[in-house]
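Page 42, continued from yesterday. The earlier attempt failed because a stray header line got pasted into the input along with the sequence. Redoing it now with the clean sequence only.
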Amino acid sequence: MTLVLWDLDGTLLRAGAPARDAFTAAFLAVAGRPPTRRAGGISFAGRLDPWIAGQVCRAEGLDAEAEAALLVQLPVELAARRDRLAQEGVVLPHARETLAGLAAAGWHQGVVTGNLRATAHTKVSALGLGEHLDLEASAYGDDGPTRGALVPIALSRAGRDAAGAWVVGDTPHDLACARASGVRCLLVATGGHSHDELAALEPDAVLPDLQGALAVLTGSSP
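This time it went through. Structure tokens are written below.
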């Protein structure tokens, strides 16, 4: 059995406005005011939620205690918006059939994401993606200090080593964490990076979207 470790946001799904509103509400609950625009220049794509919370809190002049409180409140606020997420969130094209095809071929599928465990579970369940994903054989933003630390955690939880494993994501951070663990990487241009930008990084494979991902991962010609 071969293993695929999926990124979530920008790869399998987009949580959209419900996730953004949840972050704003969590910040408001902690700081007593909405966030300002001072953190607007920070790129969050491919980052761990604790890193994002730290960056935003520092930009907003908040301390480590507020950062910790924000990370506690964020899953609460997203869970409160689960119905909106189910209605407004998007499963990206070809995601469902790729997950189902890999499952039918006997592949084990987990998640490596910067999301906190609780927020990842809310997104997966709200958008109906949990059938083929082993959310225990996975790693999350609250599991390690860096994204590079997450792949070994997920491999250990899946009872696997790097041989035959893939990371699928949409950012250079996904490639970096795969390379740090000797795992192959497929990048898809479904997030904020173009196909050409991702191809220049020389991952094991790159596609415009998840169409053809099943063939790439199972070793057929795309």
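Notes: Residues 16-85 form one domain.
Reminder to self: strip header lines before submitting.
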